[in-house]
Amino acid sequence: MMVFCEECGERYIIEDDELTGTAIIFICRVCNEIIRIPAGKLPRQPEGEKQVESEKG
Ligand SMILES: [Zn+2]
């Protein structure tokens, strides 16, 4: 998913692998603003059973 710093507009791309269903917090490398993404804004639901990858096809 794509994330923008609300302070300076810097764009960050967060890989799906890094989405664990919990909030993401990091510091903008440009303006040092703390960027916080609550779990509710993440594409994956914070609650629920763990998805186990199964064979496709
Ligand atoms: Zn910034």
The SSE order reads EEEE
Strand fraction band? 15-25%
Gross geometry: elongated
**Number of helices, where a helix is a run of at least 4 consecutive DSSP H or I residues:** 0
The distinct bound ligands, ions and cofactors come out as:
zinc ion
Helix content: under 10%
Write down how many β-strands occur, each being a DSSP E stretch of 2 or more residues.
4
User: What is the domain tally?
Assistant: 1
Low-confidence stretches: none
Determine the mean pLDDT. 83
Rg: 14 Å
Describe this structure in words.
- The protein has 57 residues and is mainly β.
- It has one domain.
- It is 0% helix and 25% strand.
- It is built from no helices and four strands.
- Strands 1-2 form a two-stranded antiparallel ribbon. The chain has a two-stranded antiparallel ribbon with strand order 3-4.
- It is elongated and about 45 Å long.
- The two termini are 26 Å apart.
- Bound molecules: zinc ion (ZN).
How does the SSE layout of this entry go?
Layout: E1 2-4, E2 11-13, E3 24-27, E4 34-37
Antiparallel strand pairs: 1-2, 3-4
Bound molecules: zinc ion.
Short summary:
With 57 residues, the protein is mainly β. It has strands at 2-4, 11-13, 24-27, 34-37. The strands form two sheets. It has a two-stranded antiparallel ribbon.
